[in-house]
Amino acid sequence: MIKLIVGLGNPGAEYEATRHNAGFWLVDQLARQAGTTLRVESRFHGLAARARLWDQEIWLLKPSTFMNRSGLSVVSLARFYKILPDEILVAHDEMDLPPGTVKLKRGGGSGGHNGLKDISAHLTTPEYWRLRIGVGHPRNQNAASGREEVVNFVLKPPRREEQQAIDESIERCLDPLALLARGESERAMMALHSGR
């Protein structure tokens, strides 16, 4: 069962449309679906809302710390409401997946993602759920893929066709997330990964 869905991103208007904010886009979509508004919750270092989704109460959270400090926000809300790591889903941008692809997994490494590194450190475990939203990689755009290019890449908006693919993938994962929220993780992964 999922009790908290966290979207990763960077706060501020200048980052709103960047690839690194794909997790925020998912949480915004869920808030719209639930008809709720995320509000500033300083004790949780972010924007939060208790939403009614899929006949369940689920917290939605967008940390207002920068990406590499996301763990503080996640652990503050999780501790306050006694939410266990395996009841948390973190939605984040994933450069190893092309735009339009979404993958779900529990646990594992951070894959170099600073938001996941910080969350794992704060929760003292990597055993939480991750929704990996594909945003592509600069090497796939005939660009040099040095560290600087990677950083610049995620801090830029996707091209129009990439944005459309990302938006469609977020829409497509809503039904599988309903299964995950009810504790049907195998069915959720099958539905998401098969594209049904």
Summarize the helices and strands and which ones pair or pack.
Layout: E1 4-7, H1 22-34, E2 39-41, E3 46-53, E4 56-63, H2 70-80, E5 88-94, E6 102-106, H3 114-123, E7 129-134, H4 147-154, H5 160-172, H6 174-181, H7 185-194
Parallel strand pairs: 1-4, 1-5, 5-7
Antiparallel strand pairs: 2-3, 3-4, 6-7
Helix pairs in contact: 1-5, 2-3, 6-7
Measured as a percent range, the helix fraction is 25-40%
Q: What ranges have pLDDT less than 50 throughout 5 or more consecutive residues?
A: none
Largest pleated sheet: 7 strands, mixed
Strand portion: 15-25%
Cα end-to-end separation: 21 Å
Mean pLDDT: 93
Q: SSE order, as H and E?
A: EHEEEHEEHEHHHH
| Domain tally | 1
Structural class category:
alpha/beta
**CATH C-level category:** Alpha Beta
- Order of strands, widest sheet: 2-3-4-1-5-7-6
The CATH level-2 architecture is identified as 3-Layer(aba) Sandwich
Alpha plus pi helix count = 7
**The CATH homology group name:** Peptidyl-tRNA hydrolase
